[in-house]
Amino acid sequence: MSTKKSEVWVTGIGLVSSLGEGLETHWAQLAAGKTPVPSVDTEDQAPYPVHPIVDFDIATQIPKRSDQRQMGQWQHLGTYAAGLALDDAGIAHNPELLAATNMIVAAGGGERDLEVDAAIMEVVSKSDHPGEQLNESLSSELRPTLFLAQLSNLMAGNISIVHGVTDSSRTFMGEEMAGVAAVETAVAQIQNGQGNVFLVGGAYISERVDMAMLMEFGHTLWQGDYKPVWSREDQGGGMIMGSAGAFLILESREHAQARGIKPYARINKVVSDRCNRQPGAARKVAERLLEKVSDHIPEGPLPVLSGCSGVQPQLSEEHDFLNGLSDSGIRPAIRGVTTMFGNTLEAQFPVNVILASLAISKGKFFDPFDNSGIEQEYTGAPERVLISSWGHWRGESLALVDTPDAPLREKD
Amino acid sequence: MNQSSKDHMGRPIVVVTGIGIVTSLGEGKEDNWRNLTSGVSGVRKITRFPTDGLRTQIAGTIPWQGEGRYCAPVHSLTLAKKSASEAIAQSNIGSIGSFPGPLFVAVSPAETNWDQRMQIYGGTAGGDATGYDRLMKNVVAGDFADYYSLYQFGSIAEHLADEFGTRGLPISLTTACASGATSVQLGVEAIRRGDTDAALSIGTDAEICEEMVVRFNLLSALSTQNDDPQGASKPFSKTRDGFVMAEGSATLVLESYDAAKARGAKILGVVRGTGERADTFHRTRSKPDGSAIIDTITRSLADAGMSPDEIDYINAHGTSTPENDKMEYLALSEALGGALDGTPISSNKSMIGHTLSAAGAIEAAISLLTIHAGVIPPTINCNEQDPNILMDVVPNVKRDQAVNAVMSNSFGFGGQNVCLIFSAEPE
Fold first, then answer.
1. A292 is in which domain, residue-wise?
2. Residue A15 is part of a domain; what is its CATH number?
3. Which residues, numbered 127 to 146 in chain A, qualify as contacts with chain B under a Cβ-Cβ cut-off of 8 Å?
4. B71, B75, B209, B354: the active-site residue
5. In A114, A167, A291, A312, which residue has its Cα 20 to 30 A from B50's Cα atom?
6. ipTM exceeding 0.90?
7. Partner-chain contact A214 B131, CB within 8 Å
8. pLDDT at res. A296
9. pTM
């Protein structure tokens, strides 16, 4: 196809997390010149600490009560954050732009009704005819609204209904890698003229024991007191789940310039792959991926945002990989994003892209997120930020976010 | 590079070189095609679990083939492996365990089924605890490594990537009942971008369990004609009363025309165009004026560079719900205009049932078989066609007719709509 690829700009951001709502709120906490303090709840989901979502006023983005009632908290959060991003990019309420806005949502599942499940489990477990009892209980206890609130693609459906985004609509699943694939696909589509504007992101609510169970099948959750992610490394590792709704507007440079929108940053590269997670395999994948971005990274200090889930041995493999950057003359200033946000799963990679874009646009990198000494200070205005996002179970990715006016060195 | 390898927009032409299919009608293209053209229904009484007290007791299930009790992701994975193996073998692409392109797989969102939930609940580590507290205590005390690798939302795609050696991150996707068509769309887009010469697009769905039946019953979406399972799915008929859930999987091996030619592969058909438009109206219903699905169809024609009168046959979404079939007719009349008159349209779901996440892929596969055979599978159970649906629905009996180009529709809950257009290999 065309030989000249479009550049991809970040022109809109919607972010709500355990730390608050909006970019300035996050900036104030993460770049105040001192170690930031995460928001952690150790009681709600005990023995599992979580980073709970802050209150957000759904009516400001989802005005109709009839719409609000059709969703659970997970869909509220995603639809809300998507609305913030559309507002931020000047797309909201513009029918022409909305009809040309494509959407890729990274989604897990919606919310089950835990009380209904609990009641059914109890009555079925005591029944002499469990099969018949299950049918009777399901038929009388489930509600149609809840089914729709559970469907993964209904977050996108609700974004279309509430905000009017109506070009293509795809929902990717697959935990952290769904967020990576969503951004990577949107970037590839924009670069190759398969769309000019994309709404991309996801949401995760950590206060959900039904979702936590899927993680705990692998005994991957951290129990007890909160610890920053690097401090879990020599204690067997473990995930602390976090809450976030994180959406981006990605736009071709030409399209953004034509409508006079200033970018936060540019997405230079997103690269990803997978392996079967035999010991050492993930690090090898990351090293191969690095070759695809290293051409764009000069020697010297480099801001790095790591989405490390906390699960071992991947945590140490990723840490070793990042330390190994020094072999190329790169001095990484690592931030363990999950220390502050928890693992926000499908939202994790979008959160990382948002933070990278924020740092680029502010001309300053974040303070170290803990006192471990692993996270080095970074002074000066970052020209590029490296993102390292691996899945807790599968998948590895790297991305490079940089300043929109930096020369784009395209080898391929 | 010769001119014919690019389409009307200068993009690489995308062709299909492998097809695999598993449905309630059988395993493989041969069995499915024989039954589809004989007007056989794969719908039956559900025997997987007790159906006492359920409003719907029928489905197009595929018997569980694993050990122990039915487990949804394992069943979905098994069917997907079968359809993918058939497609890759036909295509003869790559080598065993090494497919030279990415994987796009349409799957239903994984949820722990009641069988598994009750099994965990029955553990003893939970003591006197109840509810999820008990589940979690039992999970912590036990070994659930298998479930960890099965109940992630990306599990099926990851296991397929392991099996077939596809390249890069596999993409698991859902657009509800349009998912299978979306998997084809994503493959087509990747090849058109030049990211890859080949892609593996799979749809799979094997999740017929108590809760799914109850959920769709709550939406009044399912047929309740339990006394006549084979007659229950009756798209476009006056007495249609809902869809019949079904299981199945289909796989297409997609390649750029140039790559397929270069390796001497047999070309089974061309993906001419894809169209999409999200609806804003309602979570389970189309806009009353049909504008989103009209746009979906119109955009697929524009993408294909074709006019309505070039479509020889329409493989309908045709779910057999009162709402869908009415809206599909409305949208086709608007989008195709006079070209709809005399264009045959039929619903594979009348025989297979509605395979939800897999349906778009299965119907894409059957659309290509239709082109190849020059035979149009019928819409069965059409004894009294809805007098308000004025289309040639190929009632009850297959029709011999040369078909060069097929339009295949997929419309999903959540307002995600996709239309695909296939044609024979250009002369």
1. 266-402
2. 3.40.47.10
3. 130-132, 134-136, 138-139, 142-144
4. B354
5. A114
6. yes
7. no
8. 83
9. 0.97
Per the CB < 8 A criterion, the answer to whether A287 and A318 are in contact is: no
Q: Touching check for A172 and chain B: CB below 8 Å?
A: yes
Higher pLDDT: B69 or B61? It is B61
Q: What is the pLDDT of residues A264-292, one digit of tens each?
A: 999 999 999 999 999 999 999 999 999 99
Q: Is B382 a catalytic residue?
A: no
**Cα separation of B133 and B178, whole Å?**
37
Which residues of chain A make contact with B219, given a CB cutoff of 8 A?
144, 147
Distance CA B292, CA B297 (A): 9
Please indicate whether, in this complex, the C-beta atoms of B283 and A157 are within 8 angstroms of each other. yes
More confident residue, A412 or B307: B307
Strand partners, B12: B6
- How far apart, in whole angstroms, are the C-alpha atoms of residue B358 and residue B249? 6
Question: Does the structural domain B15-111+151-423 have CATH classification 3.30.200.20?
Answer: no
Q: What is the mean pLDDT of residues A141-149?
A: 83
Residues A72 and A164 in one domain: yes
Q: Where are the domains of chain B?
A: 15-111+151-423, 117-148
Give CA separation, A391 vs A177, A274, A344, B131, in Å.
6, 9, 11, 29
The beta-carbon neighbor of A173 closest among B154, B192, B279 is B154
Domain edge (last residue) among A202, A231, A258: A258
**What pLDDT sits at residue A409?**
53
- Which of these, B165, B177, B180, B315, lies nearest to B250 by C-alpha position? B180
Sign of the CA dihedral running B184, B335, B397, B381: positive
Band of residue A412 on the pLDDT scale cut at 50, 70, 90: very low
CA distance A240 to chain B (A): 16
Lookup: tokens for A295 = 């051409």
Q: Is A128 part of any domain?
A: no
Task: Estimate to the nearest angstrom the gap between the alpha carbon of A52 and the chain centroid.
Answer: 15
Cβ distance B139 to A213 less than 8 Å, yes or no, reads yes
Q: Do A281 and A221 fall into the same domain?
A: no
| Residue A150 touches chain B, beta carbons under 8 Å | yes
Nearest CA in chain B to A179: B171
Residue A3 has pLDDT above 70, yes or no: no
The answer on A296 and A171 residing in a single domain is: no
C-alpha count within 13 angstroms, C-beta hemisphere, residue A52: 14
pLDDT band (50, 70, 90) for residue B4: low
Write the DSSP string, B205-242.
E----HHHHHHHHHTT-B---TT-GGGS--TTBTT---
One-letter amino acid identity for A294?
S
Asked if B210 lies within 8 A of A138 by C-beta distance, the reply is yes
Q: In the annotation, is B354 catalytic?
A: yes
Question: What is the per-residue pLDDT for B427?
Answer: 64
